[in-house]
Amino acid sequence: MKTYYLESLGCAKNLVDSESFAAILERAGYQALETPEGADLVLVNTCSFLRDSLHELDLVLAELAELKNSGSCGNLLVTGCVTKRGLEEFQRCYPEVDAWIPLKDFAALERYLELPGSGKTERKAITHSYYRYLRISDGCSNHCSYCAIPSIRGEMQSVPIPELVEEAERLAADSDYPAQELIVIAQDTASYGMDIYGRKALPELLEKLHAIPQFQWIRVMYLHPDHFETDWLELWKRLPKLLPYFEIPIQHSEDGILSSMRRKLGGMELIQLFHKIRESLPQAVLRTTLICGYPGEKRRHAQTLQRFIREVRFLHLGAFVYSPEEGTLAIRMEGQVPARTAKNRRNRLLALQSEISAELLQQYVGQTLPVLIEDFDEHDEEGMLQGRAWFQAPEVDGLTFVEPADVEPGKIYPVLVTDVIDMDLFGRIVI
Question: Which of 75, 243, 308, 387 could form an S-S bond across to 253 if both were Cys, CB 3.0 to 4.6 Å?
Fold first, then answer.
């Protein structure tokens, strides 16, 4: 039996491509390994969105090249975003790579493996989880001044609704990984359909996805604030599987900064948007992401952003230091903020958010919440269970640890929350 190891770098959107590459490898008779040692073929699906992503890739390829040179693994293949950004440099540095597969070029991998073209893209789960991602479009047409995505993945390309429903139904029918949760993703989910239908078609898509019986939770992420319609909130009221979890990446709150970022809504309009969500759905939770140290950001802007965070009170928040990326408008702007200053602003912001999150999470102590049990806590000798409450997205929002019980992983159980530590909940199953 031939074997392969697949390293998927970057975000969940990249993971979707990795699952498609994995399906091709398995069709060619390869079996997955958990580590690259001993693999006949190693495939790395790359991210080059940020400088840090390229640095991570450099570390990964250096390790894999050493394994290959020592005979510990076979052929080394690289695909993904690096083929659109940084390719020549990496080709010079890593002659050990046997083939550079263009971004999302599944047919190229089929040709490399001497497989007949399939004409359609299947997916094979490469993580042991009870959730699956559905990428409804790729690329982005917003052209924010700090972002390199359009130059890497192109303009937004929506997948037609019938194809997405068919793909979601295949994911739901995967008996190896029976997913309870479907997570809808894209660079800009709120703009879905504009390029192929001439209208925002997210509500129509969600209606159809909601009808798939196997999924109990549907989570929508990457909702761009400029394109989110508050009329859609009626959908969240009407469809019980649609989680009232709103990830809306605003990046900043200052009008001048937002305008420079090429974003439309100003700070007051963003506050009104979040107030409207909470007014319509009192149980809603909010997540956002922010950029600290964007060119032109002054101390007063950073302080105003903190006041904004205090007022809105997000449950979850990610803050990142501005990264000057080649090919973006922002890299040429005046007023570049020193990295140390940007990091200090981010740290202060995260410290403030930690206090807010702790206060908001305390409200769940004493409540019984639906929790998707996913695994056993590998660090606990007593067999504590590990899962996620409905407002905890995978990888980013903390976990729920549950006292040992005779339950089946991959199912949703009622859990009485007894404690909160940092971003994690603790509780016991009540049936």
Answer: 308
Residue 341: in which H helix or E strand, if any?
A: helix 339-362
- Sign of CA pseudo-dihedral 223, 229, 230, 233: negative
296 with 256: CB under 8 angstroms? Answer: yes
The answer to whether 321 touches 343, Cβ cutoff 8 Å, is: yes
Read off the DSSP letter of residue 190.
G
Cα dihedral across residues 387, 391, 394, 399: positive or negative: negative
Q: Using an 8 Å Cβ cutoff, are 393 and 378 in contact?
A: no
295, 326 Cβ separation under 8 angstroms: no
Distance set, CA 109 to CA 106, 340, 404, 406, 431 (Å): 5, 43, 45, 44, 49
Q: Is 361 helix (H, G, I), strand (E, B) or coil?
A: helix
Averaged pLDDT for residues 67-93 = 86
* DSSP symbols for 130-163: SEEEEE-EES-S---TT--HHHHH-S-EEPPHHH
For tokens 């498609």, the residue is: 20
Distance CA 121, CA 22 (A): 11
Query: Which carries the bigger pLDDT value, residue 283 or residue 126?
Result: 283
> Which residue from 263, 266, 260 is spatially nearest to 336, judged by alpha carbons?
260
Helices 299-312 and 267-280 sit at what angle, rounded to 10 degrees?
10
Give the tokens for residue 145: 């001044």
Find where tokens 């008779």 sit: 29
Judged by average pLDDT, the poorest of 3-12, 209-218, 221-230 is: 3-12
Distance, in Å, from the CA atom of 203 to the CA atom of 185, rounded to the nearest integer, reads 14
- Give SS3 for 108: helix
pLDDT at 10: 80
Q: Answer whether 202's CB lies under 8 Å from 235's CB.
A: no
Q: In Å, what is the CA distance from 142 to each residue of 109, 151, 228, 401?
A: 31, 11, 14, 39
d(CA 202, CA 252): 25
Rounded to an integer, what is the distance from CA 381 to the centroid of its chain? 31
List % helix, strand, coil for the chain (3-state, nearest 5).
Answer: 35, 20, 40
Q: How far apart are CA 171 and CA 165, in angstroms?
A: 10
Confidence of residue 9 (pLDDT cuts 50, 70, 90): confident
Question: Which helix or strand (DSSP H or E) is residue 46 part of?
Answer: strand 41-46
